[in-house]
What we know:
protein biosynthesis; RNA-binding; Histidine--tRNA ligase; eight-stranded mixed sheet; nucleotide-binding; ATP-binding; Anticodon-bd_dom_sf
Amino acid sequence: MAKTDKPTDQPSDTKKSDRPKARLPRGLADRTGAELSATRAMLEKIRGVYELYGFEALETPAFEYTDALGKFLPDQDRPNEGVFSFQDDDEQWLSLRYDLTAPLARYVAENFDKLPKPYRSWRAGYVYRNEKPGPGRFRQFMQFDADTVGAPSVAADAEICMMAADTLEAVGIPRGSYVVRVNNRKVLDGVLEAIGLGGDENFGRRLTVLRAIDKFDKFGAEGVALLLGPGRKDESGDFTKGAGLNDREIATVLSFTSHNSTSGAAPLLDWKRLISTSEIGTEGIDELLQIEELIQAAGYSDRVKIDPSVVRGLEYYTGPVYEAELTFEITDEDGRPVRFGSVAGGGRYDGLVARFRGEKVPATGFSIGVSRLLAALAALGKLDADAEIGPVVVLAMDKEPARIADYMKMVADLRANGIRAEMYLGGAGMKAQMKYADRRGAPAVVIQGSNEKAAGEVQIKDLVEGARIAASIADNAEYRAARPAQLAVPETEMVAAIRAILERRAQGTLGLAD
RNA sequence: GCAGGUGUAGCUCAGUUGGUUAGAGCGCCGGUCUGUGGAACCGGAGGUCGGUGGUUCGAGCCCACCCACCUGUACCA
């Protein structure tokens, strides 16, 4: 920008206070190079597993009619509570999807007659939730779902649990560093019945109890007991009201849910005796026994385990529920342990399609939180995070049109040979151009001033090698004079020389681990 | 939503008992340089001190309200 001595020379006709502030809305994120390619690679791996299991692709739009999405209808005062909503020309409410299951239910209901049953599909895409963002929690995030619609058998549930395990391993989570935990909502219902919380009038308290159980991994048995009983006070002194159960009832609930993940039929049979008075509970246990049997037969017992503390979506799931949890711990930069917890979850939702069709359509599905899984992989060091190799940069040493044409020709030659290349298009001098090339991650630059031009040569500098050599040169004058990792070649050999550098770089990357 | 905390340049922070034109380091942009990334030197951009209102001759500093962010918690399809 030109030097100015008067503020009236402002190039913009807007006053500073009128200019918008360049800022990202909270809870959203920009993503660039390495992260994007890592995401792409991960999505490909997940897709590979899903398709191997026989699921087919489906894409639905980012928004739907609000009533098709479910119970989160906007009201006049707070139309965007929880979901982002807006009105169409004809006043109908539309909402951004908050998961990929509700749109699937709509799609299946709308196309029911055309689809093979069971219908097995996968979907990947961004979903939107208008809630308070936090670390690792965004208002736009990606999910990757697979669902089987029209299959009443628990074999469909067992299959999805096994697929979840295969998927986590495919993206690089080692066996033993995760567990897929399975429960059955019917068992929890049976427990609730056993402590006298059956019936419509206890709906609210049932929710409170289930929410308390869901906090097991966060607060432990004592914390959950407080939430089941009188309530719990957190670190800031804020108080959470409890479910008001008495000691015996609390003990009953905990006798189920405080078990760690298990496998084998024995504990299940114990639990079955405990809730033998409850018909629904007994049914739930029987389903879990079947799942356990299928999992054992397929050899997944070390990865997929029964765990009666899994709760998941409260008013949503009707049978088996599952959750994939990462079990390793990582410490953050402050040395505090970070748990990633659940990276995927799902369950059976026999009521969702019925909303549209009246008749029950049993379905079971599973959703991976792509962003969270990606963060976990990054922490594990499992991301293919080789820094992207930038383009070869041809420096614009002279700015006359004829010379620019020369540089453009060089770039064209490189591109014709499949080498990523560009001419420096900015207005700055050579030093700034070198900085630019450095920042772009360029493997090499091509330099041709008038001297080189007269000699029919170009200077080619290997930036990676150059940086290495430069590290041992302290004095600036010496550094400049040395021109490290730079060689002059005839113009006709420019492409070959660049290619040699790129090949050396590609090999060097493998050995750079030390 | 609730509870607690924090707001001065892109980042990390100074800023006297309230007193002229709000500073530093790092970063950023450019130059010194027919030339070379890092280093050095020189120059530059960048702040209505989170916002609004109040007290005062005078507010970055005091008061009120609001907003944003952080931590915990609630909710989470």
